């Protein structure tokens, strides 16, 4: 598979110009005080689909040939990749089928249907959903879109990091939540070209450590997949993103789900920001490893906002009465 380059990221920016405005990146003194670092939050939670993945989806749809546009695409996802593909497919007038593991986050499932995609629930987890999607794509002659092994997705997602280093060229560390790894791979690609002294640090949920363990081992591994943070819930490493992260990533941290819940609450309190679990995982890494970040200028990507109602209610209960 061809690795995307910084030129592909720049080309993706031209594709996305006029479709998605740059997202803001803000500093919040209250959050700095809590984290003990100088934190800039990159607000991908304000994307029209509620997550950064729409950048990749729009870029991928723009890259399809005439035959693929006619027959359509099949994606598998716990939610945000699905919304991204459905959103982009609708923009481009391309048929779109999404396979989700049975009993998905209802807010994400409803959003996919509302965007006009055909939603199929199949499989107990992402691995089984992916297998179902693979068979379906073959049966219907549609283009299967991987959750991460897609150069056009990574190049599209890289536009977020082009923006970040323009908004704050002096970032010392960028912290990126990881599921399949498209975000962290894109961050590595852009940092290498534009901010070679900036460290990229990836974060995954301790209950779903496949990308983390794959990166540490230097080969693709399969791991249990138990996190509640859907965006981080993958059970296997992906070849393309692992290759891109390989030598470029400075570190890969794990955080547990309770810490992620705490970070969701801190983002609400200190940054007036609604994040889903995966979207708060970057901040969770700062809270879990304060010594690693103390006094540094850190870009934290708030990757998404698509928390279910149940998740929101339990976060607020967790915070308790003031
Ligand atoms: C998909 C997703 C992630 C993980 O991104 P990858 O590119 O799969 O590593 C993190 N946060 C949110 C909100 C997501 O939707």
TrEMBL record:
<comment type="similarity">
    <text>Belongs to the serine/threonine dehydratase family.</text>
</comment>
<dbReference type="InterPro" id="IPR050147">
    <property type="entry name" value="Ser/Thr_Dehydratase"/>
</dbReference>
<dbReference type="Pfam" id="PF00291">
    <property type="entry name" value="PALP"/>
</dbReference>
<dbReference type="GO" id="GO:0003941">
    <property type="term" value="F:L-serine ammonia-lyase activity"/>
</dbReference>
<dbReference type="GO" id="GO:0004794">
    <property type="term" value="F:threonine deaminase activity"/>
</dbReference>
<feature type="domain" description="Tryptophan synthase beta chain-like PALP">
    <location>
        <begin position="21"/>
        <end position="304"/>
    </location>
</feature>
<dbReference type="InterPro" id="IPR001926">
    <property type="entry name" value="TrpB-like_PALP"/>
</dbReference>
<dbReference type="GO" id="GO:0006567">
    <property type="term" value="P:L-threonine catabolic process"/>
</dbReference>
<comment type="function">
    <text>Catalyzes the anaerobic formation of alpha-ketobutyrate and ammonia from threonine in a two-step reaction. The first step involved a dehydration of threonine and a production of enamine intermediates (aminocrotonate), which tautomerizes to its imine form (iminobutyrate). Both intermediates are unstable and short-lived. The second step is the nonenzymatic hydrolysis of the enamine/imine intermediates to form 2-ketobutyrate and free ammonia. In the low water environment of the cell, the second step is accelerated by RidA.</text>
</comment>
<protein>
    <recommendedName>
        <fullName>threonine ammonia-lyase</fullName>
        <ecNumber>4.3.1.19</ecNumber>
    </recommendedName>
</protein>
<dbReference type="GO" id="GO:0006565">
    <property type="term" value="P:L-serine catabolic process"/>
</dbReference>
<dbReference type="InterPro" id="IPR036052">
    <property type="entry name" value="TrpB-like_PALP_sf"/>
</dbReference>
<keyword id="KW-0663">Pyridoxal phosphate</keyword>
<dbReference type="GO" id="GO:0009097">
    <property type="term" value="P:isoleucine biosynthetic process"/>
</dbReference>
<keyword id="KW-0456">Lyase</keyword>
């Amino acid at each position: 598979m061809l690795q995307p380059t910084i030129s592909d990221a720049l080309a993706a920016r031209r594709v996305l110009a006029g479709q998605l405005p740059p997202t803001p990146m803000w500093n919040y003194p209250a959050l700095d005080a809590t984290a003990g670092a100088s934190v800039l939050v990159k607000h991908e939670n304000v994307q029209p689909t509620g997550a950064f993945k729409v950048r990749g989806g729009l870029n991928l749809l723009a890259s399809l040939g005439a035959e693929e546009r006619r027959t359509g695409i099949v994606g598998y996802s716990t939610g945000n990749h699905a919304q991204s593909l459905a959103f982009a497919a609708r923009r481009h007038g391309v048929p779109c089928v999404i396979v989700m593991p049975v009993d998905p986050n209802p807010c994400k499932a409803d959003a996919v249907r509302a965007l006009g995609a055909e939603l199929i629930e199949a499989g107990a987890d992402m691995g089984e959903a992916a297998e179902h999607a693979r068979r379906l794509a073959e049966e219907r002659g549609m283009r299967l879109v991987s959750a991460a092994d897609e150069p056009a997705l990574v190049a599209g997602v890289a536009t977020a990091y082009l923006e970040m280093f323009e908004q704050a060229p002096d970032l010392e560390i960028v912290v990126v939540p990881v599921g399949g790894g498209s975000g962290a791979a894109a961050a590595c690609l852009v940092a290498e070209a534009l901010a070679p002294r900036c460290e990229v640090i990836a974060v995954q949920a301790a209950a779903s450590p496949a990308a983390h363990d794959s990166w540490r081992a230097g080969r693709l591994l399969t791991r249990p997949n138990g996190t509640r943070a859907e965006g981080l819930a993958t059970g296997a490493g992906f070849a393309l993103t692992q290759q891109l992260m390989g030598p470029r990533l400075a570190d890969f941290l794990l955080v547990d789900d309770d810490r992620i819940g705490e970070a969701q609450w801190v983002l609400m309190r200190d940054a007036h920001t609604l994040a889903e679990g995966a979207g708060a995982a970057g901040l969770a890494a700062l809270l879990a490893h304060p010594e690693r970040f103390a006094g540094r200028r850190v870009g934290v990507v708030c990757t998404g906002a698509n928390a279910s109602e149940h998740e929101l209610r339990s976060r607020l209960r967790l915070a308790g009465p003031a």
